[in-house]
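=== Discrete structure encoding ===
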Amino acid sequence: MPVRTYAGRMVEIDEEGYFTDPATWNEAMIAEIARDEGLGELTERQLQVVRFMRQEYEEHGGGPSVRMLAKTSDVGARELYELFPKGPAKVAAKIAGIPKPKGCM
């Protein structure tokens, strides 16, 4: 397994860069992961989506698809794609340290 260092902590990731153990993630890692994804410093709205993804994972064992994310996060689909142009659910999931949601390519 590949290993990355975020916020001074080594974590295992899969071949796509998703954490293999979501329990190793913490919020101090957000900025570095976002930079790796080409986003730079996240806005409050982007952070809202990342935290929502993490909460959904902790409560339901998985992150929502883009469609469910738009319906349940108080952020519409158009805005989600503006906030995360490379794919809202998969990029937000990666930043949140959770597995890629089912249905994401």
Observations:
- The chain has one domain: 3-95.
- Helices lie at 30-36, 44-60, 66-72, 77-83, 88-95.
